[in-house]
Structure formats: C-alpha cells, structure tokens
Fold this protein.
Amino acid sequence: MKKAAIFFATGYEEIEALTVVDLLRRAQIEAVCVSIDNEKSVTGSHKISVAMDAGIDEIDFDSFDILVCPGGMPGTRNLEACRKLTDNIQKFYDSGKLIAAICAAPSIFGHMGLLQGRKACIYPGMEAELTGAEVVYDQVVKADHVITSRGMGTAIAFGLEIVASLLDRETADKLGKTVVYF
C-alpha cells in the first residue's frame, strides 16, 4: 500500500490539508496526518482543530512515498521553520521521491532551490517565491517528482494528481467522478 505524510502546522489551511487526506484514503492510500510540533491535535487558520495520527518525531520518513505540505498562514511559515521537515523534503527531492505543496507552501520548495527550471504554481501574488521556476497558472502542475497547486479552490485537483502519481490516472479519474468533481 502506498503511504503519504501530510504535515500539519498551526495555521494550516484546513480544506487543502483535509481534502488531500480524504481523497487519498478513498483511494486506499495510507494518509498519515503528521504534527510538526508533535501535538495530538493542530489548529488551522480558521480555528478548526484536527486530531493527528502521529508527531513528526514518531514517523519513519523512509516508509513514505510522498511528503505533502498544505498551505495557509502562518502554517506555511511554520512548516518551513521545521528543520526536520525541510531536511527530509530535501532528501526526498534528491532521491527522486514525490513531494507536493499547495497554496503558499510551494514557496518552501522555491526557497530551497527545488524548483530551478521546473514549471510550478502558487497562490496568486506569491509568484516571486518560486525561485528559479517557470511560473504557470494551472490548477496543479506536476514537474517530474514535484507537484504544486494554487490554493483552496484547487485542492481536489491537487489531491487527485497525488492519487494519479501514487497509483494511476485511471484510479484518480474514477475517484474524481465518484466525488462529482468531473
């Protein structure tokens, strides 16, 4: 079974994080909600608290097929400040494993230099944060093993692209129809 880690930091964008978790679980992908501060629940930018499956110190990064960063503020800044997370994003990137970010969170990849020469997208007005990228305005962009998306309104497209990347496009399209996205 494929396995995804979705990272939660105080101030995350609830829809971006939970849509991904929901779609991955519907696709029979193990989606693990991970608190970067090891708390049992994390509160989002709209004051919705969600129970976590694990703290970052409890997980084995090598057991995951993808690392996912939701956006939101100050959630994105909190994710970027987590050295254990960014170190592992770098390791995944270097080994060709999937990494994904939505809304403001692609800025983390930009600041890390992971978008050089790649197409990428981000929340409107933050394009300058995609250092070295070819900025595009699609709902979601997959460039090799890096997936980026623009915001809350693109969360389903983002989640389905992750499903397609971990499993296959047919499964993602079928799921999209099941949830009345297509």
User: Anything to note?
Assistant: The mean pLDDT is 98. The radius of gyration is 15 Å. The helical segments are 14-26, 75-80, 83-95, 106-112, 155-166, 169-178. Residues 11 and 74 are 5 Å apart (CA to CA).
